[in-house]
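Many introductory courses stop at the sequence. We go one step further.
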Amino acid sequence: MFAAFRTFKTDETGAVTVDWVVLTAAVVGLAAVMVIQLQAGSAGLTENTQSFLGRQEAGQISASD
C-alpha cells in the first residue's frame, strides 16, 4: 500500500496535461473577452455611422460633420 502511494506521489506523467488544460482555458477566456469588447466597440461605431448618415441629404455627405 505504501509503495503504491509512493509511486503515485512521485509520478509526474499527467502534470504536463494539467498545464496545457489550464493554458488552453486561459487562452479561450481571453478570446471570449476580446470578442465581447469588439462587439461593444463595433456597435458604437455602427450607431455613430447610422446617426451621421441619417443627418445627410442625398449626394451631400461632407467630411466636416
